[in-house]
Amino acid sequence: MQVPEAKFAVAGRGTKTKFPEWIEDYRVDSFNEKIEKEISGLYSQSRLVIGLHGSNMLLASVHAGMTIYLIDEHWGNFAQDILYQERNPRMATFRYIFLPYQTSNDTLGFIAAVMVLKWSKFKSQMTADVVNSDVKE
Q1: Which of 71, 77, 114, 125 places its Cα 20 to 30 Å from the Cα of 131?
Q2: Rounded to an integer, what distance in angstroms lies between the CA atom of residue 93 and that of residue 107?
Q3: Segments of the chain assigned E as strands
């Protein structure tokens, strides 16, 4: 495992099923205000949320550090379910990744690990010119 301290959770609407003990299942049958607040709290503690494209990803895009959106046939609508929290376009391309729903688990895992492990370095590289541009010559 590339990120041994990582915790994994499944959240959203759905039927609870048996996962390995290292995956927590927070899925619910239906939503209400209390549950949405709890899910938002979970997202706000998350460095990365991976989910299927749809309105369910609005809260994730607001609260999580980064997101991977898996898209099936709705490529023409891919940015509708994001509330961008990033003004810097370079940083936004790292924080909000769009992949085909059919992406293999190995590829998805690799990309997710890169996002989590390389975020700090990427951020320092991509924001350095902003800091340097403020310096008067």
Answers
A1: 114
A2: 18
A3: 8-13, 23-28, 48-52, 66-71, 96-100
